[in-house]
Amino acid sequence: MYKVLIVEDEKVIADTLAAHLNKWGYEAVCVTDFQNVLEEFEREKPHIVLMDIGLPFFNGYHWCTQIRAQSKVPVIFLSSMSDNMNIVMAINMGGDDFITKPYDLNVVVAKVQALLRRTYDFTDNTSTIEHNGGVLNLNDQTFMYNNNKVELTKNEYRILQCLLENVGKVVSRDSIMEKLWEDEAFVDDNTLTVNVTRLRRKLEDAGVSDYIRTKKGVGYIIS
After folding, report:
1. Domain extent for 171
2. Farthest-apart Cα atoms in the chain, separation
3. Of 34, 110, 115, 176, whose CB count within 10 A is highest?
4. CA-CA distance, 174 to 191, in Å (whole number)?
5. Nearest 5 degrees, angle CA 197-CA 202-CA 207?
6. 54-82 average pLDDT score
7. Among 90, 120, 150, which residue terminates a domain?
């Protein structure tokens, strides 16, 4: 799960933004000590920072410079101070993007997604599928939720991968069994049911409930 650090002194704005990011499966943390933003950054170790410019004590440019001195973590400035001078200043101080207030929350999420994808997808060898806070690692065939790591069998992994690659769509039992046949392992209808039941139990133990839903007589869906 990617962690987002929100450096915004207007509590209502910060809380609203955090709640929206949480709905999209991110772990959003709001800075509360604006005299010690760098300390909170070091403690939280976020994957991305959303930074206001007008802050108490020191402005966002100051804190971006402090962060840049020790980290390449992407920083997006969020500010109503959107004249060309401030935008240029934000980029020159190490910012990666600039979003003008008032903003559409979905635009912020889209920018966060794009910047995370550019920053992390090509800097490590980990391929993942993320949905609603859950992360399926395609390299080691594990599932992560709220820092709980779930070890999956080969069949459980392939079932979850198949469903996550078709989020919002019902995947038929026949389609899933065809995927499980890839290594010529024998899988019948009852075997599939047993594997799905075990997979659901593992996900529930990790804190994920109702992740996989049954469409009676058709198949399964993750929505």
Report:
1. 128-221
2. 65
3. 176
4. 12
5. 120
6. 89
7. 120
* Residues 38 and 67: beta-carbon distance below 8 Å: yes
Question: What is the domain-level CATH number for residue 178?
Answer: 1.10.10.10
Q: If you average pLDDT over residues 66-86, what whole number do you get?
A: 86
Using one digit for the tens of pLDDT, what is the confidence trace for 200-212? 999 999 898 889 9
Give the separation between CA 69 and CA 167, rounded to whole angstroms. 40
Q: State the pLDDT at residue 182.
A: 60
Q: With the C-alpha atoms ordered 35, 39, 44, 47, is the resulting torsion angle positive or negative?
A: positive
CA angle in degrees (0–180, nearest 5) for 68-71-72: 85
Q: In the listed set 99, 120, 141, which residue is the last one of a domain according to the structure?
A: 120
DSSP-assigned states of every residue in 163-219: HHTTTTS-EEHHHHHHHHTTT-----HHHHHHHHHHHHHHHHHTT--S-SEEETTTE
pTM of the model: 0.55
For residue 41, the Cα-to-chain-centroid distance in whole angstroms is 18
Q: What is the C-alpha separation between 11 and 166, in angstroms, rounded?
A: 37
86, 100 Cβ separation under 8 angstroms: no
Q: How many CB atoms lie within 10 A of CB 12?
A: 8
| Angle CA 21–25–28, to nearest 5 | 45
Distance CA 211, CA 205 (A): 12
Q: How far apart are CA 65 and CA 47, in angstroms?
A: 17
In order of 30, 54, 114, 164, 218, the CA distances from 111 in angstroms are 18, 21, 5, 22, 37
